[in-house]
Automatic annotation (TrEMBL):
Keyword Cell cycle attributed: yes
Listed GO CC annotations: nucleus
Protein's name according to its UniProt entry: CDT1 Geminin-binding domain-containing protein
Lineage of the species this protein comes from: Eukaryota, Sar, Stramenopiles, Oomycota, Saprolegniomycetes
MF annotations from Gene Ontology: DNA binding; DNA polymerase binding
Keywords: Cell cycle
Amino acid sequence: MSVRRAEAKAAAQKRAFEEAEEEEKTANVEKKAKVVDATSFATYGLSEHMPPTAVHLVHLFSSLEFSLTTLQLYHRTADFPTIKAAVESSSKCTFTIQEFARIVTVYPEAYDLSFTKPTDNTLPELCIKTASLSFPKRMTTFCTALNDKLAEFLASNPTADDFEVPEASLPPAEEAMGPTPIAQLRSQEVRHAAAAAALTPLEQAAFLAKPLPKELEGLPSWLVKKVRTAEWQRNVLKNNAADGANDRFEATLPQLCDQIQAYSVFTGKTAFELDKLVQNLNKAPIPDKIKEQIERVAEMVPFWLTVVESDKTRVVRLNPKQRYPAVKQIISQSVKLN
């Protein structure tokens, strides 16, 4: 008898659960169908033939715009979890990332998308920033674009019942997290492949013809060749890195000269002890190469900057009679030629 009662109780609980679940589904459908009349947005030019699902998207866009404006007024970061809560509170509808992607499909230039910085405990979140257009203009633009998509759909379909806006491709969160270890390894492989490609047959033959180190003696020829080729690739990569550093050394000279000129104007002086000048150029592009770069500038434009010895110290002198814009142009042209 007790078993039957337990079974009856379990069956009753199951029915109650199913009924509650069905009521929740119905409530969600009613929420989504709250705005089904296109005339609600007739002010912004929305077509009266727009199907309810698309009108619902307009309703979400309107709530999204309102929420973004509110967050901006309170100087809050508009990451997607915050936006989702605000939109759902405003529209009384669910708002998912998929629905946001459909909004982006209709109005791709509406938002600047970025990510929050990831931390040890949090993943990057999508951030949404709007342009400076007014709300009515943005609503009108959205409705016009949606009308165009509906017209395009109706050109090949008899009714608008099946009209759906596809989801746009949103930027992946991996962009904010940086390359994965696997991606870094693949990048390294590409660099090695590029180094190998730089090896001409004659250079390869000359390199492999060098005396064989003792540690490689007795190994199979294919293995020796592989080891020697890898050694060559390392040398090429090292040389390429050195070339890149030299290029940056030259390319940042105009930027350093800007700082020297600004410091001269700020202090009202045209002569400085080299060591003190280096200390005060705290935004130099290559902090550990300031002295070398100043020496290089002195070689390029000695009529504007010179480095002289004075009382056991080195002094940088600027010629105030030279117009700095002309000096910078000469430096920039010299850098390009090099």
